[in-house]
Amino acid sequence: MEQKSNIVLISDFGRSGQGWLSYMLCYILNAQFVEPYNFLNGKTYSASKDVISLTSGNLPGREKTKYNLVVKTHNYPSAEFNLTDKVIFLVRDPRDVAVSMHNLHLIQEKSVSWNHPRAKLFLTYYKIFSIGDYLRTIKDWAKHYKIWKNVIACQVRYEDLLNDPKKTLVGILNYLEVQANEKIIQEAINEFSFEKITGRKRGEEDKKNPEFRKGISGDHKNKFSKFDMTVINSLFKSVIKKSGYEINR
């Protein structure tokens, strides 16, 4: 099967701004967003009608590009990978991923009925033994990273997207061989800013909502104890450095 270049595939481990990047690219490319996990369950990918409208691939007064779909995945690549030759591999500091994932787990466990015999046990475990949750996430992240980095792709760091979204998006568009329109790029950045989507300032957290948690980088420095940091460095220092992140002491 020939590779199809009308699909953009965005891969990340999770908790790395994949939805944010996908939304902006859909707006810029006038392409439809496909969230396969919700799609298979018959659920919309956003509660916001505005987000769905702006990522439907049918923007009024806008020309189509050669890309009609932006698809996300957290899965490992297939041994017979042939869906598309345009892949964006989104990477975030695994320590920040671990913090965000831990927060998600706490929210999920709180949503379990307290009549469930294991609910209180799970919640207590996640609160007291957060280091175990952090280590499991970083271990899984490292496996995901090592596999995907061997796929020919445009690697993008969440931190770069956060610090200079315009420059990062222009780089992605160059990879996709799409002429950058600065006006449309800026519109995408504005439409899907953290403040506009959440109604919160960047850094403010809604502890009941796991999506678009804080919109910052380096939050692990606020969450990890010295013990957490020592254990994580002893086990994962090599892969953290190889992925381009500094080691904290």
UniProtKB/TrEMBL annotation:
<dbReference type="InterPro" id="IPR027417">
    <property type="entry name" value="P-loop_NTPase"/>
</dbReference>
<dbReference type="Pfam" id="PF00685">
    <property type="entry name" value="Sulfotransfer_1"/>
</dbReference>
<feature type="domain" description="Sulfotransferase">
    <location>
        <begin position="8"/>
        <end position="243"/>
    </location>
</feature>
<protein>
    <recommendedName>
        <fullName>Sulfotransferase domain-containing protein</fullName>
    </recommendedName>
</protein>
<comment type="similarity">
    <text>Belongs to the sulfotransferase 1 family.</text>
</comment>
<dbReference type="InterPro" id="IPR000863">
    <property type="entry name" value="Sulfotransferase_dom"/>
</dbReference>
<keyword id="KW-0808">Transferase</keyword>
<dbReference type="GO" id="GO:0008146">
    <property type="term" value="F:sulfotransferase activity"/>
</dbReference>
